[in-house]
Amino acid sequence: MHLLDLPVDLLQLAADFLDAEKDINSFAQINRQSYSVLNPYLYRRNSLKLGSSALLWAAQRGSGGTARACLSEGADVAAFDKFGRTPLFLAASKGSEEVVKVLLATRQVDANSKDCFGCTPLTGAASYGHEAVVRLLLATATVDADWKDNFGFTPLNYAASWGHKAVVRLLVATGKVDADLKDNYDCTPLSIAVSKGDKAVVTLLSATRRFDMDSTDLL
């Protein structure tokens, strides 16, 4: 009897004796039959034994197809890497609209998950100016648009610092961000924009500012 003529459960048992994922993947690539049997098994094994690392990989590289395959075989949407970054955080930071949509569609992700620096997926997306992803996250009812990380920086701080005007506009439009909220260094999103000489961002933030007559951070 040829190896590939074995029942599915025996093929999977044989694959389980292979230590490395790359070896199982090579086994799966032999032909269509082995692929159809072992590829789902490979994702399931990754979810159970390797901390859903394949989903983290897919999120970081913007691979929607791989993300879906991982989720269909039980990958943990709350998995995280050594820096505490979840799949949603990685996908948001990379600007992968497709993977963010896939993850949000599970209705099981924490939109406010924090990495080791206290940053959320929205923080990551805002930092890199990923407008489409910021829009998706802001549409999530539970997202905290004005969350402070370990440095006291909010998504608005980062967007203002890097001159991401479109993201600043989206954040301001929520009515849930404070342009005068001070970070750990007594700077505000507005004062940062002023120091950068970014007139467009200053104009956007000034329209929402709650004027504090005793504030000196703009001097």
UniProtKB/TrEMBL annotation:
Extent of the ANK repeats: 83-104, 151-175
Gene3D superfamilies attached to this UniProt entry: Ankyrin repeat-containing domain
Name of one Pfam family that matches: Ank_2
Keywords of this entry: ANK repeat, Repeat
SUPFAM superfamilies for this protein: Ankyrin repeat (SSF48403)
UniProt cross-references to InterPro entries, sorted A to Z: Ankyrin_rpt, Ankyrin_rpt-contain_sf
Signal peptide: none
Protein name as annotated: Uncharacterized protein
